[in-house]
Design brief:
- The complex is a heterodimer of chains A (230) and B (325).
- Chain A has helices at 45-52, 75-80, 98-109, 115-120, 137-149, 167-180, 193-199, 223-228; strands spanning 7-16, 19-29, 34-38, 60-65, 68-69, 83-86, 155-159, 185-189, 202-207, 210-215.
- Chain A is an alpha/beta fold.
- In chain A, helix 3 runs parallel beside helix 5.
- In chain B, strands 1-2 form a two-stranded antiparallel sheet.
- Chain B is globular, with a radius of gyration of 20 Å.
- The relative contact order of chain B is 0.17.
- The chains are: A alpha/beta (230), B mainly alpha (325).
- Chain A binds chain B through residues 53, 55, 74-76, 79-80, 84-87, 91-96, 100, 103-105, 107-109, 126, 129-131, 134-135, 147-148, and chain B through 180, 183-184, 186-187, 190-191, 193-202, 318-321, 324-325.
């Protein structure tokens, strides 16, 4: 952790009722950095993101974003500060059109310039008047990311962006994520290790609720190295 | 251009639907439908857009009706002022109870509103009987002064006024449906967590929707008071708590025309079928069971795709994504 970090989580302990899920978890992200969290199912990766996004309240620990304490803030306040969370389930607002989904993102951030969205995802241009409920999984993910990048958030938390998607869409998303990280810091939870190793600048390996490794050396960011910690 | 045409077409259709009513239906029947349409529009917005089912709408109807009635019985004669006061009463009451009620979801929200209807009913019938005259109600038809241009104290004048108000309320809800706020309401119904991640407060969205819907209901109550020149606690009877919900489902939940169509069907059954069948509510019950089994779309919800297919086939294909490349 350094002074230049935009997002810092320290000593996070989180429990679902009596069941403790995170144990002294930590994470730090510099502006424009692409960080991934890897781990098996149930390791606590998504819980870490949800806690940072304000959806879950930790029993102890701290989260600071741009030197502001996030603990106790509502998730919508955190989103307004420029820290957006894209959940794992690809549930969009199915009764709204693609255009209306994007308008929701625009109105909240007062950013009505959709050019970056359609540049990253040209496919969305032809889908503007379609109900989001009729989109494919890949198109939904494009919409969710496109909606979240409106307002140029400083940090994007993305939970399993490639889960269940076709290889061609995963390849496209990989390029998009790399491009996005030039403008916003990204924290991605992902199980696709080849993808993780191809795009990450830093990897946190999480096992049974604990951060067991923090890999920052580019030479060590390899699928074989990550696997050791899982 | 096509969007603007569709917008005006929708308004023309609603306008025609209500205007035809005046030609084919007896005046009292038409007036009752107009009032019931407004009553249902509030419930339809809550249920269809925000996902709140409320069995307490008679409470807000009574607030509007008594707001108007107190003024016209005790203080003044101008029905327009009475209507305005009824509207304000609904706005104030829903703004006050809203923050407490909108924190609740589903069945708890429905029940807390029903409890409010019970409270209002007993307040008007027993607790405040000295000023509400209890079951005898307040009679003020003779107190109302006639109004210039359109005299709303006469049934025909009232129809013109209520018709314009109904159209205004309908256009307002159409505007809301097409607005970002309408999208927010639908989004909070579909997935409240996701909306928060975009930076919206679900609480604020629901509170505003609650106030808008129940102020509309209070407006219906005010119109009821002016039209009949009489208000009794029966208006807030919990026994009639399901009426607006039934009409909303009958017409088609979440559809703009649903409240008008539902009000016509429900009032029609009540007024016409009750002449033939004594227990007409039984017919409504069977009709609702049929509608639920047929897909919960209601009369307009079922008719709309057929009409759209006939008039704007491309619009339907686009919505469904059938024409995907």
């Amino acid at each position: 952790m350094s002074d230049g970090d935009i997002l810092v989580a320290r000593g996070l302990n989180v429990a679902y009722g009596e069941s403790k899920v995170l144990f002294d978890a930590h994470l730090s992200v510099r502006p424009g950095q692409l960080v991934t969290c890897v781990g098996r199912n149930g390791a606590g990766k998504s819980t870490l993101l949800k806690t940072i996004a304000g959806f879950l309240k930790p029993t102890s620990g701290s989260v600071t974003f741009n030197n502001a304490n996030l603990i106790g803030l509502m998730s919508y306040d955190i989103a307004r500060m420029g820290l957006k969370y894209i959940p794992q389930d690809k549930k969009v607002f199915s009764d709204l059109t693609v255009r209306e989904n994007l308008e929701l993102g625009s109105y909240a951030t007062k950013d009505y310039n959709w050019t970056p969205v359609t540049d990253y995802f040209p496919r969305l241009k032809s889908l503007m008047d379609r109900k989001a409920g009729y989109l494919s999984g890949g198109e939904r993910q494009m919409l969710m990311i496109g909606r979240a990048i409106l307002g140029s958030p400083k940090v994007l938390l993305i939970d399993e962006p490639t889960e269940g998607l076709a290889p061609s869409i995963v390849a496209h998303l990989k390029d998009v994520l790399k491009e996005l990280s030039k403008k916003s810091a990204l924290v991605i939870v992902e199980q696709n290790l080849p993808l993780v190793c191809a795009i990450s600048e830093k990897i946190y390996a999480i096992k049974e609720g604990r951060v067991v490794a923090e890999i920052t050396d580019p030479a060590s960011i390899k699928a074989g190295v990550c696997e050791k910690f899982l | 251009m096509r969007k603007a045409f569709a917008w005006w077409w929708d308004i023309l259709l609603a306008f025609s639907l209500l205007a035809v009513l005046r030609i084919v239906a007896p005046l009292p029947f038409a007036n009752e439908i107009l009032i019931f349409s407004i009553y249902t529009m509030g419930c339809n917005f809550l249920l269809g857009r925000v996902g709140f089912i409320s069995f307490g709408q008679p409470a807000y109807l009574a607030v509007g009706a008594y707001g108007t009635a107190f003024y016209l019985y005790y203080f003044g004669q101008n029905p327009y002022v009475g209507l305005l006061l009824g509207l304000v009463a609904g706005l104030v009451v829903s703004a006050i109870v809203g923050p407490f009620f909108v924190r609740l979801r589903s069945d708890y929200f429905a029940l807390v509103n029903l409890a409010l209807a019970v409270i209002v009913f007993y307040l008007m019938e027993k607790v405040l009987a000295s000023i509400t005259h209890g079951d005898n109600g307040l009679w003020f038809l003779a107190n109302m002064s006639s109004t210039p241009v359109v005299n709303i104290t006469t049934p025909s004048g009232f129809f013109i006024f209520a018709f314009l108000v109904t159209m205004a309320v309908w256009v307002f809800y159409k505007y809301l449906d097409d607005s970002i706020y309408g999208a927010c309401c639908l989004a909070t119904k579909i997935n409240e967590d996701k909306l928060q991640f975009l930076g919206y407060s679900n609480f604020n969205i629901r509170w505003l929707a609650f106030v808008i819907a129940n102020t509309t209901t209070a407006l219906a109550g005010s119109l009821y008071a002016v039209y009949f020149g009489f208000v009794s606690p029966e208006i807030s009877s919990p026994a009639r708590a399901a009426d607006p919900v039934v009409v909303t489902i009958l017409g088609g939940v979440g559809t703009l025309y649903g409240p008008i169509v539902g009000a016509i069907a429900y009032t029609g059954m009540k007024d016409l079928v009750s002449g033939v069948i004594v227990n007409w509510e039984l017919l409504v019950g069977f009709l609702l069971v049929f509608i639920m089994l047929a897909g919960e779309k209601g009369i307009w919800g079922s008719a709309q795709p057929l009409l759209t297919k006939a008039l704007f086939p491309k619009r339907l294909l686009q919505d469904r994504g059938d024409g995907r490349s």
